[in-house]
Amino acid sequence: MSVALPATVMLRRAVPADFPEVRRITREAYLRAGHFAADHPYMSVLEDVEHRAEHAEVWVAEAAGKVVAAVTVTFAGQPYSEIAQDGELEFRMLAVDPAHQGGGVGRAAVRQIVEHARQLNGIEAISITSATFMERAHKLYRSLGFRRAPERDWYVSGENILLWVFRRQL
After folding, report:
1. Would you say the pTM of this structure is higher than 0.70?
2. Residue 53: pLDDT above 80?
């Protein structure tokens, strides 16, 4: 399935040929934002695109034939779901190539995830987890109608990282 985005960007399901670029974009986006050090254990989770694609949906945003962003989509009860409840689509690991950040790619991708979710039977909301220090992401989510669900916030096991939950009713 492909979903057209504003201008020349298209959101589509990733294929194995995209995985190296998804890995690179995700790694660079998280490292350049200063979210994690290169040797942090979560980086290996982010970089294992093959595992993600086997147990969730990996999507890419493409512009001019080049992958410029990636995101993982999952649902309640699936291996990559952290917070999705019945009737929710959860997206995770949204990463925009640092060379394309600030141009609306992330915003366009989230908008199209919302549109995709609206077309799915039984999906009534979208949820996302975001670390408290990911302030740019919080601004984006709020601007697109996501609201904090603080009663669902949680800490990463074994770390002092508080994760906020954002939710958007469809």
Report:
1. yes
2. yes
User: Strands 162-169, 154-155: parallel, antiparallel or unpaired by DSSP?
Assistant: antiparallel
- DSSP track, 130-154: EETT-HHHHHHHHHTT-EE-GGG-E
Residue 126: CB atoms within 10 Å: 26
Dist CA 12 CA 153 (whole Å): 30
Mean pLDDT of 54-61: 97
In a domain, 144, yes or no: no
Q: How far apart are CA 44 and CA 51, in angstroms?
A: 11
Helix (H) or strand (E) holding 114: helix 105-118
**CA pair distance 122, 145, nearest whole angstrom:** 20
CATH classification of the domain holding 44: 3.40.630.30
Instruction: Work out the number of other CB atoms within 10 angstroms of the CB of residue 23.
Output: 18
Joined together, the tokens standing for residue 143 give 């601007």
Number of domains in the chain: 1
Question: Which residue segment(s) compose the domain that 80 sits in?
Answer: 2-126
Per residue in 151-169, pLDDT (tens digit) is: 999 998 888 889 999 999 9
